[in-house]
Specification:
By secondary structure, the protein is α+β, with helices and mostly antiparallel strands. It has five helices and six strands; from the N terminus they run H-H-E-E-E-E-E-E-H-H-H. A six-stranded antiparallel barrel has the order 1-2-5-4-3-6. The two termini are 27 Å apart.
Length: 190
C-alpha cells in the first residue's frame, strides 16, 4: 500500500524531473515503513510456531477465537518460507491455529522473533483517508528534507540551527493528531 505516491511527492517538493522516480520512491517507501506499522489493521502477531508433517501450528500471545475461524484465508508474513503467503485455516484453538504447510520434517514448538503477522481481510483502505494521506505526505517530506539538507538535518526558522531530532520519535509525533483515530492501540504503549 503506497500512502504517498511519487507524483504527489514530486508536486509537493516542486522538483519537476530533477530526481528520478526511483530516488523519490525510496523516500515514499521509507515513509510507509514508518507509518503503516502504527495503523490499526485486522492482524495478530505470531509469537511461536511448530509443525507435525504438513500441519503447521501458529501461536499467539492472546486469545484468537474471535479473530480467526476455520476456512478463513489469512496472509502470513514473517513466519518463514513454509508459512508465509495466503493460507486457509484448518483448525482454531484458544491461542493458536493450524494451516497446511510444505514441511517435509517435524519441527518442535519454537519462538518467532521478530514476531510474524497473521492478517485477515482488511476492512479499512487507508489510502482513501485524507488525514492519513496528509500525515504520510508530511512524513515523506520530512524524510526528504533530512536527506537533502546539509548534515542531514533540518534548520529551525528562527535561528537556522540544526535540529538533532529530525528523524527521532518526533517524526511520528508531529502528525499524531492527524493519525489518532486510526492508530492501533497496541502501538501506543508507553
Amino acid at each position: 500500500m503506497a500512502l504517498t505516491t511519487v507524483a504527489e511527492l514530486r508536486t509537493a517538493l516542486g522538483v519537476g524531473t530533477l530526481y528520478t522516480d526511483a530516488v523519490l520512491q525510496s523516500v515514499c517507501d521509507a515513509s510507509d515503513n514508518v507509518l503503516l506499522p502504527f495503523l490499526w489493521k485486522n492482524q495478530q502477531y505470531i509469537i511461536a510456531q511448530g509443525n507435525t508433517g504438513t500441519v503447521g501450528t501458529l501461536y499467539f500471545d492472546q486469545p484468537i477465537r474471535d479473530y480467526f475461524y476455520v476456512g478463513q484465508s489469512v496472509t502470513i508474513s514473517g513466519a518463514g518460507t513454509k508459512y508465509n503467503g495466503t493460507k486457509t485455516i484448518t483448525g482454531v484453538s484458544t491461542r493458536s491455529f493450524t494451516v497446511t504447510t510444505s514441511h517435509t520434517s517435524d519441527n518442535p514448538l519454537h519462538t518467532v522473533e521478530p514476531y510474524g503477522i497473521a492478517a485477515a481481510e482488511t476492512y479499512a483502505d487507508y489510502t482513501t483517508v485524507p488525514a492519513i494521506q496528509e500525515a504520510s505526505l508530511m512524513i515523506t517530506i520530512a524524510i526528504w528534507q533530512a536527506r537533502q539538507a546539509p548534515s542531514g538535518q533540518g534548520m529551525t526558522v528562527d535561528g537556522f540551527a540544526p535540529s538533532p531530532f529530525t528523524m527521532s520519535n518526533t517524526l511520528l509525533a508531529r502528525v499524531r493528531g492527524l493519525l489518532a483515530p486510526y492508530l492501533d492501540p497496541r502501538s501506543m504503549v508507553g
